[in-house]
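The authors assume throughout that readers already know how a fold can be written as discrete tokens. What matters is that the chain and its backbone geometry are given together, residue for residue. A single example would do more here than another paragraph of explanation. For illustration, here is how one protein appears when written out as sequence plus structure tokens.
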Amino acid sequence: MPATQERSVRVVVSRDPLTNAERAALRPDLARRGIAESLLEVIPPAGRFFQLLRAVGSRGELLGVTTLMSFRPFVSIKQLLGEGNHVGWDTSIYYSEGADRPLVAAALLRAMARRSFYYAMFFGRVDEDVRAALPLVRHRLLETDYRLGQIDCTGFEEPADFLALHKRLRRNVRTHAKAGGAVHVHTGPVDESLARLFSDLVYSTYRHHGGVGRWQFKEYAYQVCGSFFANCRDAVHIYTEENGRLTGLQSFIKHQNRLELSEGGFDRSRDNHHAYEAIISESVAFATREGLDYVGYGGIWNAAKDRYTDREPRDKIYVLQLYAGGLQYRLAGDRLSKWAFRTYFGGRFGGAEGKATIVS
């Protein structure tokens, strides 16, 4: 890429929320892609480790934005498991009208790489804009054996139609109800007390699974997720209760034609009598009632997602490693890159073996 062209886009990293003028510049892109505009109000997510990356042109005009989780100089991670997944941390790049999308994407990817001494990691779906930017960025692209799951609701005329396809799901939903379980749906922001209870469930689940980053689980559950629960206008919170005790939660973002999983958790201290299956069933029922085409469940990390999401199509999950310089690229190497992915992801998530193949 010519140096003058590269210098025409600079990236500003901050925790400053978008201004009204910036939101107005980005709305046409979100509307065209069917993305809930309320995501512009909740990025960057609350919390010390989340930033908003703004790509600006030579006259200071906004060209594009995206979110990032980073703790310099060691961690720089971008995820895209679903639009708005992980309370707004997982977002694609949003562009202003007329922006050179590959050029803007490349500038943002290079900025991510500069925030880590080793390499930045982009984990999830690689869209066409990011893929078009890869020739302009020093990188390794690994295709993993993990997949994204969704449920196609276009063939359902009644909420019960999905249940009719799954005998095991019907049985587990009945078991949940017989144990005194109830399913509730709350759309939009929740009050402080309910947000706190939701955060308790998120914290319980993250502590249960453990893994790298456990030192920030409490802040993530109560500050980051708590702010999302209390502020997102297009959130759909589906939660279960048993004898006055909250047992499970899955919060979604309602897009134009899609319900996308954002965050959730479960009470891990006792049997919740198939609360997860009850929520899956209700999410499809909600989408059917609202005339939505799909329910997106992000990464297929467990048996329930694997069992109830559609077998096809299942989009691929990639690991995109981004390097600030040639030294980091050479030191990482193909074998080390695959080993690092297998060691972390293969031991933490179900649904696959943690295998990866170098694509580019």
Summary: The two ends are 18 Å apart (CA to CA).
